[in-house]
Specification:
By secondary structure, the chain is an alpha+beta fold. The strands form three sheets. A four-stranded antiparallel beta sheet has the order 2-3-1-4, with helices on one face. Strands 5-6-8-7 form a four-stranded mixed beta sheet, with no helix packed on it. It has ten helices and twelve strands. It has helices spanning 3-36, 54-70, 86-97, 127-143, 158-180, 191-199, 206-224, 243-253, 271-278, 345-359, and strands at 74-78, 105-109, 119-123, 151-154, 231-234, 257-261, 283-288, 297-302, 307-309, 319-326, 332-339, 366-371. This is Endonuclease/exonuclease/phosphatase domain-containing protein.
Length: 373
């Protein structure tokens, strides 16, 4: 580059700098004029925070998901005597249940009081272990009087605790009204019903709230009337891989009794999470283990409808039978029958006739339901 070219280049740079300075001066003058006319002003005491980064959003989402899932590995034990060593209690309880994934941690929750036992919260490594522990404990409580008083419920999130308190309050209102009317009923309100009733409330008239609650209570009372029962019989051909389907079916159809054949339950520890996942809230199960390939019987029933396994002296060879006593408006026996396909039909009919002859001598009415292949 020659000397003249360098001089020309410097002159152009100086000219551009002068133009830029003039533009900045004009801009500052325009801004000052706008502010003096109150068209543009700085908002007082305003601190603008930068928008969250993508990393912050992802971290917050993951933390919320982990917090939401963590309570699903926790269980709440009630009516557990407060001793100096809860570790020994949990170890003995697991030995009694023959359940060996020991809880990884535990703690007493609530303030210590002399008139009641604090709740014991236990945590497991996985949701599967927590569900298995609950299912196993529910079974052992019916067989072992030493742990019969212990209650195990899933841990709830903060939102679920709020909804649960609302449902208990609504149920208390319904029960008080039923008691005042002289009815021998008790009611419970699930979280879905709680939200529905909460949406119908008004803030102006308290009596309107109670009236709407009692209106729903009358509907629930009619459904709880045991003079008529909804009974369904299904052959799921193994419940082991259909727990969600059966649970959804019960929630949708709301049967009082659901009789199942070919459950394929074996009585091993692996059955516990299956049963727990299959039963919605408010339902219990009576079942008989499979005696051969493809067998197994069960009756899923409402907890408010007492159903107990009944002794049956007749032992058929061509079919399986589960006999239970149902204490409804009129107590009766129910027999769920499943004819084993490999057995001769004539043998089945002969044994069934002999069985009915024995059952006819009993004073209680009898309902027989099942699947004959």
């Amino acid at each position: 580059m020659t000397l003249n070219e360098i001089r020309t280049f410097h002159e152009k740079i100086s000219s551009l700098r002068a133009e830029l300075a003039a533009a900045n001066a004009a801009t500052n003058a325009a801004v000052k004029e706008l502010r003096s006319n109150s068209i543009l002003s700085d908002p007082p005491n305003t601190i603008t925070s930068p928008p969250p980064s993508f990393t912050d959003v992802v971290c917050d989402t993951v933390k919320a998901a982990i917090k939401e899932e963590s309570h699903k590995t926790e269980l709440i034990l009630s009516k557990v005597e407060e001793k100096d060593n809860d570790t020994q209690f949990l170890s003995d309880l697991c030995d009694t249940m023959q359940f060996y994934p020991i809880p990884k941690s535990f703690e007493r929750i609530g303030r210590k009081r002399d008139d009641r036992q604090r709740l014991l919260k236990v945590s497991f490594d996985t949701q599967f272990n927590a569900r298995s522990f609950k299912a196993r404990c529910d079974v052992i409580r019916k067989e072992n009087h030493a742990v019969a008083d212990i209650r195990v419920i899933p841990s709830l999130s903060k939102e679920e605790c709020v909804a649960s308190r609302k449902s208990r309050k609504m149920a208390y209102t319904m029960n008080q009204a039923a008691k005042k009317d002289g009815d021998t009923y008790s009611f419970s309100v699930n979280l879905e019903m709680c939200e529905r009733l909460e949406g119908t409330r008004t803030n102006t008239d308290r009596s309107t709230d109670i009236g709407k609650l009692l209106k729903h209570a009358r509907i629930m009372k009619h459904h709880r009337n045991m003079s008529s029962l909804s009974i369904i019989c299904l052959n799921p051909w193994s419940v082991c891989n259909k727990t969600t389907t059966i649970r959804d079916f019960i929630i949708d159809e709301k049967p009082d009794l659901l009789c199942l054949s070919e459950t394929w339950l074996t009585g091993m520890a692996s059955d516990n999470p299956i049963i727990s996942a299959m039963l919605p809230d408010g339902y219990d199960i009576q079942h008989q283990l499979r005696a051969s390939w493809g067998g197994g019987l069960a009756i899923i029933h409402r907890m408010c409808l007492p159903v107990q396994s009944a002794k049956d002296t007749f032992q058929p060879h061509s079919y399986e039978v589960l006999k239970c006593t149902v204490k409804a408006a009129q107590t009766f026996h129910i027999c769920v029958v499943y004819h084993l396909p490999k057995n001769n039909s004539c043998t089945f009919l002969d044994e069934l006739a002999d069985h009915f002859e024995l059952l006819a001598a009993e004073t209680q009415p009898l309902l027989t339901i099942g699947v004959v292949l």
